[in-house]
């Protein structure tokens, strides 16, 4: 059962100047407009976050889940201004930033987050590039190659007993010339060594089952930009408006120059994967008694100075045939698990995209009757962060779409439906 999804929202003003402005009557010294902090009334800054709460489970391996947040915010770069203009009996004063254009006309850039499907496709690519090789598939291939190249064929193994009986009754010269004593001993010893090595590999495979291998993969950062483009000509720089209230007023025409406003656009996209891989040993893999008995019996071959008599006494002769025959069953069992053998304790594909529109004024600074104003550059940014999770068997899969075998493997590894 999945976790509960929650949505959190917050908002705050577009920009508040850390300065003040006022207008006063010069002859009387009375403030016509009370000094106050300025507010630039553009689109509100916002953040919306959608996520799931997750309990610690799987011994702390998997505590995440789907996540998305979108944040739209503004930033100003430029020094504060402090200038005064006198007009008639009035004195206008402003202390704060000057914007390149009226901010209430602006909008934040559109968000560019990927869909779940697109991000899952990235996740599948990342898994293919960084996951450990499938141990189940590797063992199946190893056993197949051992049977094909490292051991005599079963018909050849079946002749050992007959050849040993004849050799035990024949003379030395007849043995070497007719029956080939050395090739027979070589076949038996090489078979025993191949089986012993195969068993060592299989035991290591069993020991490593359930162990976790962590992997990550980072895609190349994508960066794009455009501009500058002209968004306004003959534009007056813009400064803040007093908060509404008694005794407050707007300050107008403090700056008497106009210029051109430009805009540049930039987009930065970062994507990466993080996951933990493990594999499951098929049921019954370690319970093949015939193979275990063969391994015990083949040990008697080592350390002996084989003669026809000692070779004949190596009974029962079925040990090699038993091992080869049962190895075929193991390979068939493994082949059914090859595509499912490696699973993820957890797997997440993450994305971080920052889209920014930056507005700036022409290089000629506007004047205020002798004072020069520094027009700030203004950036509006939309930033998204997104995370999608993988099913133990890959991205874009659902629990309902898993086969009975896949669900059994997931259950054996303690992975629950809350993973997806």
General description of the model:
The protein has 420 residues and is α+β, with helices and mostly antiparallel strands. The chain has one domain. The chain has ten helices and 15 strands. It has helices at 116-130, 135-150, 154-158, 160-169, 172-179, 181-208, 289-298, 308-312, 319-337, 404-412, and strands spanning 5-12, 15-25, 30-40, 45-52, 67-77, 81-87, 90-96, 213-218, 222-235, 241-242, 259-279, 342-361, 367-368, 371-372, 377-389. Strands 1, 4, 5, 8, 9, 11, 12 and 15 form an eight-stranded antiparallel beta sheet that branches. A five-stranded antiparallel beta sheet has the order 6-7-2-3-10, with no helix packed on it. Helix 2 (135-150) runs antiparallel to helix 9 (319-337). The protein is rod-shaped, with a radius of gyration of 39 Å. Residues 56-61 have low confidence and may be disordered.
Write a concise keyword list for the protein shown above.
420 residues, alpha+beta, eight-stranded antiparallel beta sheet, five-stranded antiparallel beta sheet, 34% strand, rod-shaped
Write the layout of secondary structure elements.
Blueprint lengths: L4 E8 L2 E11 L4 E11 L4 E8 L14 E11 L3 E7 L2 E7 L19 H15 L4 H16 L3 H5 L1 H10 L2 H8 L1 H28 L4 E6 L3 E14 L5 E2 L16 E21 L9 H10 L9 H5 L6 H19 L4 E20 L5 E2 L2 E2 L4 E13 L14 H9 L8
Antiparallel strand pairs: 1-4, 2-3, 2-7, 3-10, 4-5, 5-15, 6-7, 8-11, 9-11, 11-12, 12-15, 13-14
Helix pairs in contact: 2-6, 2-9, 7-9
């Amino acid at each position: 059962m999945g976790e509960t999804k929650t949505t959190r929202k917050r908002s705050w003003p577009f920009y508040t100047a850390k300065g003040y402005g006022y207008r006063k009557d010069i002859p009387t010294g009375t403030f016509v407009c009370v000094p106050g902090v300025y507010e630039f009334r553009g689109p509100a800054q916002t953040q919306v976050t959608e996520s799931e709460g997750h309990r610690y489970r799987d011994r702390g391996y998997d505590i995440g889940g789907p996540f998305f947040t979108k944040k739209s915010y503004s930033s100003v770069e430029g020094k504060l201004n402090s200038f005064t203009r006198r007009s008639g009996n009035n004195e206008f004063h402003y202390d704060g930033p000057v914007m390149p254009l009226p901010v209430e006309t602006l909008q934040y850039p559109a968000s560019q987050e990927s869909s779940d499907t697109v991000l899952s496709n990235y996740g599948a690519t990342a898994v293919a590039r960084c996951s450990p090789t499938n141990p189940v598939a590797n063992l199946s291939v190893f056993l197949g190659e051992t049977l094909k190249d490292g051991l005599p064929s079963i018909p050849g193994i079946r002749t050992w007993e007959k050849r040993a009986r004849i050799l035990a009754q024949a003379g030395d010269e007849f043995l070497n010339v007719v029956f080939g004593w050395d090739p027979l001993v070589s076949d038996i010893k090489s078979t025993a060594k191949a089986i012993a090595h195969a068993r060592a590999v299989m035991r290591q495979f069993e020991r490593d089952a359930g162990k976790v291998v962590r992997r990550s993969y980072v895609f190349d950062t994508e960066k794009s930009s455009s501009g500058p483009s002209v968004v306004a000509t003959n534009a007056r720089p813009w400064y803040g408006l007093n908060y509404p209230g008694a005794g407050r007023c707007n300050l107008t025409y403090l700056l008497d120059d106009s210029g051109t406003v430009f805009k540049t656009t930039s987009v930065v996209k970062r994507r990466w994967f993080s996951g933990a891989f493990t594999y499951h040993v098929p049921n019954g893999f370690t319970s093949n008694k015939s193979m275990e008995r063969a391994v015990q019996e083949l040990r008697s071959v080592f350390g002996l100075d084989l003669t026809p008599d000692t070779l004949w006494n190596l009974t029962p002769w079925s040990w090699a045939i038993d091992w080869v025959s049962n190895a075929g069953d193991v390979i068939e069992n493994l082949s059914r698990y090859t595509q499912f053998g490696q699973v993820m304790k957890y797997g997440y594909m993450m994305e971080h995209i920052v889209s920014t529109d930056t507005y700036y004024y022409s290089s000629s600074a506007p004047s205020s009757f002798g004072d020069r104003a520094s027009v700030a550059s203004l950036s509006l940014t939309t930033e998204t962060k997104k995370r999608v999770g993988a099913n133990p068997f890959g991205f874009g899969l659902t629990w309902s779409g898993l086969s009975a075998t896949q669900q059994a493997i997931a259950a054996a590894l303690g992975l629950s439906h809350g993973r997806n």
